[in-house]
Amino acid sequence: MADSEVFVDTGELAPEPPPSGAVQWIRDNLAYSVSSTITTIVVGFIVFFGLRALIAWFLNPFRKWSSVTANSRLLMVQAYPDAQFSRVWISVGIVVVLAGLSAAVWRVAGKVSVGQVASGLLSVGSAALVLALLAPGEFTGGRGILAVSGLAIAGAGYLWKRAKKASINDPVISTVALAGFGLVLIAVFLWTIKLPVQEVFADGTKEVTSQALANSTKVPWTILLGVLAASYVIGVAIRDAVPALRRILVGLWALSFPAILMVVMRAPDIKWDTVLSLDLPIFLVVGAAVGAALYVIGAPDTGEWKFIVSALGLVLAILWVLFSWYLFDPTSTSPFHITSSAADVLQRLEFKFPLILGALFALAAPSFGGAKAARLQFIGVWWAALGLLIMSFRLGAASSLLQLSGTAFVGGLALTFTLAIAGIVLSFPLGVLLALGRASTMPIVRMISTTYIELVRSVPLITWLYIGSNLLNLFLAGVVDIDSVVRAIIAITLFSAAYLAENVRGGLQSIPKGQYEAADAVGMSVVQKTVLITLPQALKAVIPALVGQVISLFKDTSLVSIIGLFDLLYIARTVVPGQSANLGSIMEMTVIAAAIYWVFTFTFSRSSMRLERRLGLGTR
User: Fold this and answer.
1) Number of C-beta neighbours around residue 120 at 10 A
2) Which pLDDT score, from 0 to 100, does residue 230 have?
3) Range of 455's domain?
4) How many domains does the chain have?
5) Fewer beta carbons within 10 angstroms: which end of the chain, N or C?
């Protein structure tokens, strides 16, 4: 073979990379044919002029955006008393502290490459430039500022991206550092950003001036941002030193909502003499009696008598709640008539509700008992649940110390959050029980669950709100006066539980029969099989449906305006536009309300998607 001959194995050569770039992308996606090119041009003109008109509407100095800043407190908490407004900031501070600690303990910090940050800056700067180009000609000053800012941001992103490509390594940046920079940026915006405000003088002349974005709240918001950063640093410092910190935080999150709603925001007038003379004896007597029963019923032997006694105890407790008045005074015309001090205690709701709770714990004791340590732990859970129940009832029955201008102690966005969170949290266990009841093999339980679900789902939420608002206090006349917000929470909870039950039942039906047979083969009881095997799989399968219901419930809270509660949307579309200084601002207020709803519902949706990816839904 001659030395000049060279053999090249063409099969070993890498294929040529496909053409790339912005021009090639346009050819492949927007102009790959004559019809697509014409469609792209037509749609482009429509989008251009539509965005130009939308930007002109937003940037018009005669838009009444001042109605938003002037009524921000009204939108958030309605007419909460000024003298007690520090309670609102304390409530927000509690959530901020728990959020910072949770972010540190669960190590939510990650890494992002410099290239991703540069691409983000380039996108933001390009969007600002596009907005500057689309802005109408009368906004010359604002257009110039927007164009310069967009050019600077896009240029920084482009140069950073070029520098990253020239580098061999792609360095990363901590998301914590980016979040810290974002907090500093928000604080700067609170102190520097101003909005155009139209002022009308006595002679009828108008003048456009500037007003700070958060003139009266920039100091507390800046403090809260600092508290968020400090709580994260503290969480990082103690997360390894306190092994049980995660469980502590879960408990604090669970207690934070009722504590904020019933203690901090409502300012209850607690009668401590009633607590010492009534609540404490009930707590000690009922707690000790039921605790002793749980210790016996939860013993490791598997006698069927335990389930029979527990079920009988639950039936007797329910009968006591319904008919105890008749046992004490059969001649009384009022079901809540009191004949003696002993009858007073035995007929009070503070005594009846612990009986129901104790009967439910007794029904679960054979399944969650066992060895002595397990029984003692279960009894500890019983004492904690009993204390929370009695305390919640006392706080709810106490009158508020607030000097209110209306019937509700909370309104605006705070009311929307209160109704949504309470409805979701309270309807979840009820909906799960209804789903299990409808799937049960016991005819009576299945019939009751099915009747409830079909009855509630056949009537719109508005009807149940009317029923809860008008009939609950009538039904409990002379016993307790339920707050209007609590009545709305009860109606929303009962309505949402019926829909949630059907979602969970669909998840139960998706579980293969072999899962039930495997649980039976290892000797699990019905409760253990449900709690440990079938229910977790069912809930995992219906996460998208559950999140959809959460989003729907969050928006449906706006219906409470028909029973006299001032939620976010009602204030935005009725109260503020009805003010003499803000007549004609209904469009601006509606846009702000829609933006607030969108931010939270979009956050719910994205969080659901991340949870689904983490659990591996849709993959095999």
Assistant:
1) 14
2) 92
3) 411-620
4) 3
5) C
